[in-house]
Design goal:
The protein has one domain (2-369): monomeric porin ompg (Porin, Beta Barrel). The protein contains three helices and 18 strands. The protein has helices spanning 2-14, 64-69, 346-352; strands at residues 19-29, 34-45, 50-62, 89-101, 105-116, 119-132, 137-150, 162-177, 180-193, 201-203, 208-210, 216-231, 234-245, 250-261, 266-277, 305-316, 331-342, 358-369. A hairpin with a 4-residue loop joins strand 13 (234-245) and strand 14 (250-261).
């Protein structure tokens, strides 16, 4: 949800423009997970103050959690009757939104529908941004509501088949000087329904059972973002996020990005991100669970762990006098590559048979104004 609010703020700052965006993301790790994500977005001005947008994203997924999780205590038999396929799952996610911007006020309403083999997602969201103080201050509020439903790809009865989530964001952005901007975002989250994975399970010498989580979860987060222009071609972005939820998970996220303009058409950047969290209050050591436990955690994200991410980015804005079928002056190309690794973790070893997860995720997008 915060990402939606920030995206709307970027759209607000840039103004309403006719453009098309082509994107491609990839993620792969040493735990057997791979995700290929092409996408397209089209933004069209209806009037000087009103724009509509249409997006389509596809995620082609190969996942250890799905392929391994379709078995429980049956290493030679797959409970799913579906045939072999190139990917464990494919997700399609079309979305539609509209934005009104009169210079002082920006309102965005939208929603999406996503479908995959075992899960259906429906959501709508609304965002409002108001500029004040001669446009040196911006206040924002965002709301989203999702209505999702599980459809397990094998014969298993769930305690619930829905997963609903409500998110509220409040933000304040302030230009402190010509070279310094600060933003504060508060996020509230409430999730209800079947919150575990229908695939992940615990198996030991005495019993085998699927993971079980509480049916509700609330969380609060506070994010501080700072952007400082060090000198004319160099800027630093810093953010810190504090999160705590009703499962007693507390996390801290630090992110630093450095950007430098090498020319009027080419910018490079680098980033470092550190994340750390405590375990949930129902998580035990992986070998200490018994069949009578009310809750069983298998996903390592319910345990205590740290992660690090390093990356490089580049932005190219072609500047040419040549003309043709495409005007390259209306194009912006953005690319990034990141390397991610976690701390050693018994939960990771149990499920993925590696001590820590290590992954690479890349992205490239092309914006073209028309």
């Amino acid at each position: 949800m915060a990402a939606i609010l920030i995206s709307c703020a970027i759209l607000y700052a840039e103004g309403l423009k006719d453009k098309i965006t082509l994107s491609y993301d990839y993620y792969g790790d040493n735990g057997g997970d791979q995700v290929y994500s092409p996408g397209i977005a089209i933004y069209k001005k209806i009037t000087e103050r009103f724009l509509i947008g249409v997006k389509m994203n596809v995620d082609a997924i190969t996942s250890a959690s799905i392929s391994k999780g379709s078995r429980i205590g049956k290493p030679d038999a797959v409970t799913s009757a579906t045939p072999m396929r190139s990917f464990d799952d494919v997700r399609y996610a079309p979305s539609l939104f509209g934005t009104y911007n009169d210079g002082d006020n920006a309102i965005t309403l939208g929603g999406y529908y996503s479908t995959e083999r075992d899960y259906t997602g429906r959501s709508f969201y609304a965002n409002y941004i108001r500029q004040l103080n001669e446009q040196n201050t911006a206040l924002g509020i965002g709301f989203s509501q999702s209505f999702d439903k599980w459809r397990p790809g094998f014969d298993r009865e769930l305690t619930r088949y829905f997963r609903d989530e409500t998110k509220i964001d409040l933000s304040a952005t302030q230009i402190l000087s010509q070279t310094f901007t600060a933003q504060l975002i508060y996020t509230f989250m409430n999730t209800n329904g079947f919150l575990a994975s229908p695939y992940e399970y615990l198996s030991n010498d005495t019993f085998a059972d699927f993971e079980r989580y509480p049916s509700s979860r609330t969380g609060n987060a506070l994010t501080l973002k700072l952007v400082k222009l060090i000198n004319d071609p160099t800027a630093i972005h810093f953010s810190y996020r504090f999160f705590k939820d009703s499962w007693d998970i507390t996390s801290h996220t630090f992110n630093v990005e450095l950007y430098r303009d090498l020319s009027s058409s080419f910018t490079i950047g680098t980033k470092y991100r550190f994340y750390t969290q405590t375990k949930s209050d129902f998580t035990k050591s992986i070998g200490d669970y018994v069949r009578t436990d009310q809750y069983i955690a298998v996903d390592y994200r319910q345990s205590a762990f740290n992660s690090n991410t390093v990356g490089v980015m580049a932005i190219l804005k072609p500047n040419t006098t040549e003309t043709g079928l495409l005007d390259f002056n209306k194009m912006k190309i953005k690319g990034a590559i990141n390397y991610y690794w976690t701390s050693s973790n018994d939960y990771i070893y149990y499920w993925y048979n590696v001590n820590r997860l290590k992954g690479v995720f890349t992205s490239i997008s092309i914006d073209y104004e028309f």
